[in-house]
UniProtKB/TrEMBL annotation:
It comes from the Bacteria. The keyword Transferase does not apply. Belongs to the GSP H family. It is found in: Cell inner membrane. It comes from Methylomarinovum tepidoasis. The chain crosses the membrane at residues 12-33. One of its GO terms (biological process) is protein secretion by the type II secretion system. Residues 44-139 form the General secretion pathway GspH domain. This is Type II secretion system protein H. It is a single-pass membrane protein. Keywords: Cell inner membrane, Cell membrane, Membrane, Methylation, Transmembrane, Transmembrane helix. Coiled coil: none annotated.
Amino acid sequence: MNWRSDSGFSLLELTVVLAIMGLGFAFVAPHFARSYDGLRFRTAVREVADGLRGARGIALSQRREAVFVLDVDGHRYRIDHQPSKPLPDFIDLTLETVAGEREDSGRGRIRFFPDGSATGGRVILAWKERRRRVDVNWLSGRVAIAEMQP
């Protein structure tokens, strides 16, 4: 009786295939990590812009002042007294706003008014060579995202 069969793969063949797959993964994995951080960066830019737009929407719809607060050192933001939302730590944040809306603790505010206007300002988000700014027009309160040159 011969138990050996010609169908199937030998242990050596399976080992070679797994080794090739492992080498391929070793070369591809770092690219996925960079892509993931890039996705997190783009998402953070949109989250900040959406937060600013949300504050403007509250001011318009509820006919009262609404405040967007950015904690540059703590990498967090919030609208009015809502719970704060985190931003990734690897992103460098800068807030440009009027002097009366800045605090010494690394926090600052952009205030929106019931007529749609705002104190105005800019949030700059940077990661590696990428820089984006989220601008708030003081007259209209409109929020816009723009790419900045390195």
